[in-house]
Design brief:
single chain, 340 residues, alpha/beta, DHBP synthase, Rossmann fold, 2 domains, six-stranded mixed sheet, 24% strand, elongated, metal-binding, riboflavin biosynthesis
């Protein structure tokens, strides 16, 4: 799944250059251990030394190592900031190129010291890696969610285990409602439910969210086994305040996708890395999703979750949400049989 990324790590480990890029900038990256391989005298580009922790927290050996590096780099060639400090324990959402550089060095079994050389020469023989690739690799392979507490929750549908999770991706709290023993399970019934205050709590007729939430719990209870993940993705990721702004635009005649665009957002900002991490933490081998949204299937597969099936969870339209449902079908690809 990550053959190219593993090649990048191997190149860094061997002391070969790789090009690390974001949407707006790019650098040649070396692990600091291989500074002897860099022809410093032959480059006119600025060189940035990136460290993954505050200098005063470096060990004596690391401090000496850093001093040798800084001595080797001519003052005129140091980047304007000289030392770039990667954010210690940065959440994935805060990752920028310095954090990505340190991550690549760590994965290559080196200290948290990296060299970034500006204005790289693009060469077909020098492999490139993007900031997004580094982030996605971390989301897939590193444990970034943590089960904080588990207890029983009796509901009107039945009794579930409820597990609260913290995460290092978004810095939010999530819950999983679990029915039965799902550890080691295959084709486990799973519902990814995005938080919707207006629908889930207040019974809004603008959407089908609240009804889908309750139907999901009914179906999982009837099945005797399954999981509902309650994801903190209000308004398809734009947040509660912006969702209510979108409501005002919808009242002016815009559909839900057009309203997002008017506010400067894409159709759907949701990412399912946290969901994939929780599924993995529950030791579920494969899932059958309760969803009408193919993007949720793709969103889990992107992070290595095996999706073996899908069950529809279609709610009858009403006068207030018929246009919303048509938009989901026609513009977002939702699989809705009852909407024409």
């Amino acid at each position: 799944m990550y053959a190219h990324f593993k090649k990048i790590i191997s190149e860094v480990h061997q002391g070969n250059p790789v090009i690390l890029r974001s949407a707006t900038e790019q650098y040649t990256l070396y692990a600091a251990e291989h500074i002897n391989k860099i022809a410093i005298a032959d480059t006119s580009s600025k060189i940035y030394v990136v460290i993954g922790t505050e200098q005063q927290k470096l060990t004596d050996e690391q401090s000496e190592h850093l001093e040798r590096i800084l001595t080797a780099i001519d003052e005129t060639k140091r980047g304007s900031e000289g030392l770039l400090l990667a954010k210690a324990n940065a959440g994935i959402k805060d990752f920028q190129l310095p954090e990505a550089a340190i991550t690549l060095c760590e994965l290559a079994d080196f200290d948290q010291i990296a060299l970034l050389i500006a204005d790289p020469v693009i060469d077909a023989d020098i492999p490139q890696v993007s900031l997004e690739e580094v982030v996605n690799y971390q989301k897939t392979t590193k444990q970034l969610v943590h089960a904080e507490v588990k207890t029983q929750l009796p509901t009107q549908y039945g009794t579930f285990d409820i597990i609260a999770y913290s995460d290092e991706i978004e810095g939010k709290e999530y819950v999983a409602l679990v029915k039965g023993d799902v550890s080691g399970g295959e084709n486990v019934m799973v519902r990814l439910h995005s938080e919707c205050l207006t629908g889930d709590i207040f019974g809004s007729k603008r959407c089908d969210c609240g009804e889908q939430l309750h139907r999901s719990l009914e179906e999982i209870e009837a099945n005797g086994n399954g999981v509902l993940l309650y994801l903190r993705q209000e308004g398809r990721g734009i947040g509660l305040v912006n969702k209510l702004k979108a409501y005002n635009l919808q009242q002016q005649g815009f559909d839900t996708v057009e309203a997002n665009h008017k506010l400067g957002f894409a159709d759907d900002l949701r990412d399912y890395a946290v969901a994939a991490q929780i599924i993995r933490d529950l030791k579920i081998k494969s899932v059958a999703l309760l969803t009408n949204n193919p993007s949720k299937i793709e969103g889990l597969q992107k992070y290595g979750i095996q999706v073996n099936g899908r069950a529809e969870i279609e709610i009858h339209a009403n006068e207030q949400n018929i246009r919303y449902l048509k938009t989901k079908k026609e513009k977002m690809g939702h699989l809705l049989k009852q909407v024409f």
